[in-house]
Amino acid sequence: MFKKIIDQEDIKKAAPSNEKKIILKDKVEVEDSDLHEFVLRPNDTYDEISLERNDICKKTSSFSHILSYKLLNNQYLILISMEAIEIYTLNKNFINRYFWNNDEWKNIYEKFKKRDEIYDIEFTNEHYKQLIEGILKDEFDDSNHSIPFPNFMGQTIDRRKEIAEDVINDNLASSKFRIEIIDMLKMAMKENCDEVVRPLINNIIESIQDHSVDSMTFISLNLAKLCDDYPDYVVKYISYTSYLDSFIYKY
Fold it and tell me: What is the CA radius of gyration of the chain?
């Protein structure tokens, strides 16, 4: 998707302004109603994806000019917009499952917003071609076996909880992004975001069985705060480390 964008002589929007609508997925089941469809509609300052029937919207989300999109397994929608790369589930709830951009992307997007957010091919060519080339080289090259860790800051509490649960339920992501998970836990503890802290701290403690030095170091350095706020997990931590000590001593 990224390569397809920068291979264009001029980077165009995925939905041209002369298109009234593009049907992304039809025959979407909605309770107590007839089948709906997901539709992409272009506008001057944003693009809109709607769940609708007979042009009557049931649910609508706005995006900052979509540059590319792809339907995956007729279930997930991958979007690359002026702001970020995102993944949504294409069901009646249209849930965001992934959001990522880096600092350079954020800075370019802020510049774009100051231009009244009207799509400008010259601006996009100048800034986004170089940006995407760098992303392809550093984040999405063939040597990486998974996509970058999703952005955590700036998300709602519910979304942060979803990110935490998604990561710890994915064995590959959970092992690859151990440092990022610990950083996410630090932020959640600092903000007293209990809904995020509990699943993460539980995952980190359980990873100690795999002799994770980073996990053990984090627990040790934050033991006082954990004793005050999450004593049940301290007990679990002690039981895990005691088991490891006895195992190492025995064998």
Answer: 22
> Which pairs from 181-185 meet CB under 8 Å and 24+ separation?
182/214, 182/215, 182/218, 184/152, 184/160, 185/218
Enter the tokens of residue 74: 């007729």
State the Cα angle at 73 between 99 and 13, rounded to 5°: 55
Each residue's pLDDT tens digit, 124-159:
999 999 999 998 888 776 555 567 877 776 677 777
Hey, how many other C-beta atoms are within 10 angstroms of the C-beta on 60? 13
Query: Torsion angle, CA of 179/105/193/94, rounded to 10 degrees?
Result: -110
pLDDT value at position 91?
81
Provide DSSP, the chain: -HHHHHTSSS---SS-TT-S-EEEEEEE--TTS--EEEEEEE-SS-EEEEEEETTEEEEEEEES-EEEEEEETTTEEEEEESS-EEEEE-STT--EEEEE--HHHHHHHHHHHTTTT---HHHHHHHHHHHHHHHHHHTSSTT-SSPPPPP-TT--HHHHHHHHHHHHT-HHHHHHTHHHHHHHHHHHHHTT-HHHHHHHHHHHHHHGGGT-HHHHHHHHHTHHHHHHH-HHHHHHHHHHHHHHHHHHHH-
**pLDDT, averaged across the chain:** 79
Task: Name 206's bridge partners.
Answer: none
Identify whether the C-beta of residue 78 lies closer than 8 Å to the C-beta of residue 72: yes
- Cα–Cα distance, 97 to 158 (Å, whole number): 12
What is the rounded distance in angstroms from the CA atom of residue 125 to the CA atom of residue 217?
Answer: 45
Pair of tokens at residue 195: 């809904």
**The pLDDT of residue 243:** 40
Q: What is the pTM of this model?
A: 0.72
